[in-house]
């Protein structure tokens, strides 16, 4: 019972793997992914601040730290499924919220329920912090897909994963996104790769959209 | 393209883990689970035959061999989610069917489409073979949960998994189910266990329902 | 005791790896392999039926479902060893049969001993079902070897494994084998590969024999 | 080059294991540990805020997000070694700082060097945020050790790890620490355990010091 | 070609697991086992020397360092199989020798063939060094089995493995064996254990034989 | 207590990984590495003997068998750190010796303390055996790095690891080193590789230094 129950549950996300079955060279746990998202988000926020933006750091910490906690309840539902129909997507989101809320109701002491509702809600919205989270989440998708492609995984889904994440990032109008696309991404594309897949070409096509 | 695409995809189910994050002592891939279900189903069918039932072996082979193939598309959606609402359950099932059908449309040569529609459909129905599949699937849940409990995993969900599977099995009126409950299950309950959980008691309570 | 003992033992085959030490990119358990063989066999049988053959589905199910169960007793004895001398091969087979029989004698209830003798016997014979099992078993060898080669494993043994399996398959005169060689295999050869090994060439040479 | 180099390096911490060789039941990567520390720190900070403290969330985010990044350079040096002599401890810390600084000098663009110096410095100091980080880091040690003990690991080092972490936490005078000791820890102690080790007794002794 | 081929092959023994399928808590590679045998053998030899025996250290090094190298060729053939019939056991040994010799013939330069024949031969004979190797090999079996039992594995085979190894050790009349039984083994028996199995009792029974 | 404690501890080195985080294709435990070093050292010593050198086999066995045992205490401290300053390197070595001695004092019976002090000391010195150990240790670094490069790992550190090990080996003036460089290494360079890295070139450059 209590917050202890929440802390104990974090361990599960060390054992839940993203995109099960797909990664051939290295799998990534939700815990590791979450940590990397916290990293990217911080750097993105730092870049925004450098350009004069005002970051609500408390909010950022709030929404990035546990952004995939819900996967403890709903598991890893593959993206194509989540997006196969708006109806299904909303229903899954409702169920996830319901389960998170139920967990909070059952285990979190009264005086912290509000804190946890805030922390475990879906943080991707139109605020600067929400957009940063969205970009950070997609950036990890780029890095994960790139690592597979670079090591020689020729499966189409990683090209798709890589490309779709780039396209999503590109459409979020932020200074930090510009920086990522102009300064960080080129270094990735310049990495040596075993793949016969032309990562440079895919990147350019995605960014042209 | 072609059936080759189907054969290549089987490898993914070797890497998709059941109930990700939950199993502490040993994880089970969908491929291994599927194989065990084929095993249990055969024995259940043999028992039914011994009692004078007529088994359509072709149908049984058909529905047991690829019964979880759909998880390649929808991933492992946790049971509590699938059953959280009838509406969601149906929607997920629709999506899964749609994706399976789409795969078959795209990859399976015309002359075998029918065969694959049959093979990859949901096989649990009210026929004897369909019920056998249902029991076999639940039996593996019993065995998986038992193995965790017996090794000392005290998490409530395994008690729940064990019990719910037994209850489901019990409600399927088959001679082979009687045999399982009267001859096979007692041997399981008599195994030595590290657990402080009283497996015997849980078993008896479940079967009393 | 009892059939429970058999069911509990299936878990071991989840942990026994094929060709231990050889696979660099991905290992395969005997359980996963067995499941894939059940898959291939079904499709081969479907193809045969389409060409007017009569399939004894009960027999097929019987011999494919537990075809490598004996590895629980004898472990994974490398092919070069098994085939190093006819005498050794026969002796190992005798020992395996003896151990399987001993297991059945000791654990399987009287009324099912016959069933299990049938189920756990060596199923590869000259019947259509026996040949299908032989082909299915070799097909998995092709797929396993191909996966390693395609990911860049340049070890000679995978070329040998790939080739020998193809040669064995080719010599089994079945319509489904023709289909495999003419319709399915080309798709494999056309897959992109990292390997400097000319898989196309190896394939053509093997099939020319 | 560039921040890309930093982002790419995060993947390594997914593969660096804490206390290598010691954990028998489950190993934890530095990445997963880091993520959990971010979690605990947030809750501790929330508790502090509830008691009227002022949290510099930007600072907290800063020091918790990459607090063990240095392990990429120095590896996992066992605690007994680090603390074997003050001289060695200081020297190791100097070396780590030197390597982190060198990395930043070499790879981070000029305009972000300052940000990264801040982010990758040692964050444990006497500020409220620094103490929260210290507590959060030790809390994960408690949770990691408890998980091993609870699953039956009787090795003395886990008792030591558990106890030392509790003692360290106890000596940090914070409201959130009181909350942890009074509200959260008891739930842990009340969990069922396989161990013959009296966790309750160890806990009480540690807290009495 | 050449000794390089031999050196490269050592890596395989890092991936070949002993008793595949049986170990539940921790598997052991042949490489790790081989290293531990080198360790035990040294200590046993040191004890013998202390009692005035003359150790041919070159011979000891020779026979302990690569004592299981043959498993690269024959794989891990389970003990019950190897011992099921004297005829089979001899045949397997012949095959193994044949394959080792073939490897040496094919790859080892002429001037070192003799060295490798010596190194890769079966070292267990009646010499003091040969007996030490036999004891060391069995000691690892004791340690491996004990580790599983101590962690709660209740499978009969580990009791059998533990006991048989002890009995074999006991029947080898060496001072170092006496030391092991009188000074080292009691410390093992005194370790805390989760098992309901009475290790002390099993030990005493085995030693009474 | 006693030598049992030492034997039990060997298991930890099966779980301590070399260069954690760096190896992408295959990790190596300290136990496996130790065993391979014993192998290489034997062959190097055989070569020396062939050239008329006198090998103290007891000493060789002594210093090669447990040469990395200290890693149980100090963990795997990355080379760049160990060599970052002579002062740190000496301090770490002092600490390691201290911990090894402490272990021996605490656990090894009086009559064997001397033996263990000899066995667990740093064996690399200017004696022929000490140099052989040095070469053998570096050879494994060559093989480990080569395996990663050959499989396509393009990370600079493996080029550095490969090259530095070769340079170190080259500077040790031994007949067996000449043999390694002239007869064994060329076979490695001639192996097929996926890497775009020119291993031949790197090798030639390293040996030219």
TrEMBL record, chains A, B, C, D, E, F:
UniProt keywords, alphabetically: Hydrolase
Q: Which Pfam families match?
A: YfbR-like (PF12917)
MF annotations from Gene Ontology: hydrolase activity
- Lineage top rank: taxon: Bacteria
Q: What is this protein called?
A: Hydrolase
Traced from the root, the source organism's taxonomic lineage reads:
Bacteria, Bacillati, Bacillota, Bacilli, Bacillales
């Amino acid at each position: 019972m209590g917050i202890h129950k929440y802390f104990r549950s974090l361990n599960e996300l060390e054992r839940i793997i993203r995109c099960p079955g797909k990664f051939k060279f290295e799998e990534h746990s939700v815990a590791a992914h979450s940590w990397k998202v916290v990293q990217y988000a911080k750097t993105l926020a730092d870049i925004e601040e450098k350009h004069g933006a005002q970051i609500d750091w408390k909010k950022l910490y709030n929404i990035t730290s546990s952004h995939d906690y819900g996967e403890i309840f709903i598991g890893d539902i593959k993206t194509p499924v989540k997006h196969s129909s708006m109806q299904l997507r909303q229903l899954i989101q409702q169920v996830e919220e319901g389960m998170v809320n139920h967990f909070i109701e059952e285990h979190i002491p009264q005086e912290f329920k509000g804190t946890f509702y805030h922390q475990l809600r879906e943080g991707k919205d139109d605020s600067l912090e929400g957009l940063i989270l969205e970009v950070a989440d997609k950036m990890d998708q780029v890095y994960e897909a790139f690592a597979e492609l670079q090591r020689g995984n020729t499966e189409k889904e990683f090209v798709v994963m890589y490309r779709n994440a780039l396209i999503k990032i590109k459409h979020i109008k932020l200074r930090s996104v510009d920086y990522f696309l102009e300064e960080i991404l080129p270094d990735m594309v310049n990495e040596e790769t075993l793949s016969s897949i032309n990562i440079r070409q895919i990147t350019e096509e995605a960014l042209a959209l």
